[in-house]
Design a protein that fits this description.
Length: 198
Amino acid sequence: MDLYGEKIGNLVSQLSRLPGIGAKSAQRLAFHIINMPHDQVVALTNSMINAKENVHYCKECCTFTDGDVCSICANEKRNHKVIMVVENTRDLAAYEKTGKYDGVYHVLHGAISPMLGIGPQDIKLRELMVRLAGDVDEIIIATNKNLEGDATAAYISKLVKPMGIKVTRIASGVPVGGNLEYIDEVTLLRALEGRTNL
Ligand code: ZN
């Protein structure tokens, strides 16, 4: 990176820390940023700082929000007795896009993975258990259909069933190993409607 000087090198190394950005992409982005109008660069950095400082977890469902609770949790028309458990905010967005689910969510921010050393205490499970002390009819487990997602589903089921709450798992319409956010809305809806008891 000495070829372009320390300041570019610094920008490239910061950008390459982002997920999915390799050395080449980081270099391309760095040059693009340098060629951008000054006010656009300021707007970009300000929006990053602003989001970082003001976005946090919803105190109910743990999704990202800049309010106290997110718009879904704050919506009284949603069925707060049905909670869909998802791995991340992108999965929540995928189900929201179907427009057919009227319950609320719980975002775990990960899945249990003994191989990666991610245990139940590393995801937002404790927060889910706190919510279950309230009036809840059903937990729909919509974690990904892979090793980690299944392990997480089994773990939650074991915890929740003794509480007398119905626990269901989205159907296998979702391809094995499939990431929920890449699956089309029809498939998601079919998976939701065909959910089975755990
Ligand atoms: Zn919320």
